[in-house]
Specification:
about 260 residues; alpha/beta; TIM Barrel
Length: about 260
């Protein structure tokens, strides 16, 4: 069994590798087990939005931190040697302490978003997260998220690109492992971000209409995740099945026993 520090280093190494790290987000133990069973799985990432929805909370730190971390800890417990990165929203009011508590349940990396707070405040949050990992003896692989696109508010795209680059560089200088830039990133925007922040230093989200993982890899992106999209696909399948059953359908013979 690997140590937590070793799993953290593994996650960082996966970020730096030439091959893009594909993480399929999970939200509970059974979804985690379904992904763990696949030989392609190299790491797990939780989706904060999906965990909150599981318990009936809206996204955005409405779920109590204790409840969120309890589910994350349960996922870590079944992950074995796989590194687990957690979605910690904006740090629940205290990024350093929240990171310390996440490390306490076995997490080795995290997404923490800046919500476009003033740069100095956002950099201080990154520094607090990195310091928490150092204090716990875990080389915490922070996927520092900037909301330069998702909270752009209609500003020109060039301003969002410049803001993401400035913030991304500052977060890396403060000790972040990579920089998460969610949003609708086409090839041209992605190329500018990679040129400005660094090759294998960008993390993106796969959503309807996004580039494929292979296309992002060719552009120098380090990691792709899917956030709440994976739960939405699962719930869409459930709802479609229910419609079929209400119409006198049957359970498909191709159904696999994954629970």
């Amino acid at each position: 069994m690997t140590t937590q520090a070793q799993r953290a280093q593994t996650l960082s190494d996966l970020h730096a590798a030439p091959e893009i790290l594909r993480v399929v987000n999970v939200w509970d133990v059974v979804s985690a087990k379904a992904i763990i069973a696949l030989p392609e799985t190299r790491a797990l990432a939780t989706a904060g939005h999906s965990i909150a929805a599981t318990f009936g909370y809206a996204d955005g730190e409405n779920i109590p931190l204790e409840l969120m971390l309890d589910m994350v800890g349960r996922i870590v417990a079944v992950a074995g040697d796989l590194p687990v990165s957690a979605d910690l929203d904006a740090g629940f009011g205290d990024p350093g302490e929240t990171t310390r508590r996440a490390i306490g349940v076995g997490v080795v990396g995290a997404n923490v978003e800046d919500r476009l707070k003033p740069l100095a405040e956002s950099v201080a949050a990154v520094e607090a997260i990195v310091a928490a990992g150092q204090a716990e003896g875990v080389p915490f692989a922070l996927n520092a998220r900037t909301d330069a696109f998702v909270r752009a508010g209609g500003r020109p795209i060039d301003e969002s690109i410049a803001d993401a680059i400035e913030r991304g560089r500052a977060y890396l200088d403060a000790g972040a492992d990579i920089v998460f830039v969610p949003g609708p990133l086409d090839a041209d925007i992605t190329r500018q971000l990679v040129d400005g922040i660094g090759e294998r230093k960008i993390s993106v989200i796969g959503a309807p209409g996004a580039l494929t993982a292979a296309e992002y890899e060719a552009l120098g992106v380090a990691r792709i995740s899917y956030g709440p999209q994976t739960q939405r696909v699962a719930l869409t399948a459930l709802q479609d099945l229910a419609k079929s059953l209400y119409a006198d359908g049957v359970i498909p013979a191709s159904t696999r026993v994954l629970n």
